[in-house]
Structures are given as structure tokens and as C-alpha cells.
Design a protein that fits this description.
Elements: H1 2-13, H2 26-39
Helix pairs in contact: 1-2
């Protein structure tokens, strides 16, 4: 099911969803993607001084 939402996200926003930030919490990632698609607003990854861990 996650793959379906990831593809919709790419189709809508032209970029990949930052799935690495949600490893192990698939349900949370799906809910966030659904929210992004509903609001037509891509997810903004919160970073600390632009550092991705």
C-alpha cells in the first residue's frame, strides 16, 4: 500500500517523498503522504541547519 502513495506523491509533486525519515513507521508515512496530497503541499523535512542524518 505504501508504494501506491509514494507513486502518487511523485506523480503530484515531481519529487520523491523523504521515506528515509520514516523507516519503521509505514503507517505514519502513509498518513503524512495522504495529508500532503489532500492539501496539495509537498512535505517539508525538518532539518537542523540543513543536516540530514
Amino acid at each position: 500500500m505504501l508504494e501506491k502513495y509514494l507513486q502518487q506523491y511523485v506523480d503530484t509533486f515531481g519529487e520523491n517523498f523523504p521515506l528515509f525519515a520514516f523507516m519503521g513507521v509505514e503507517d505514519e508515512a502513509i498518513n503524512i503522504i495522504k495529508n500532503c496530497l489532500t492539501n496539495n503541499k509537498p512535505y517539508e523535512l525538518e532539518t537542523n541547519n540543513k543536516i540530514l542524518y
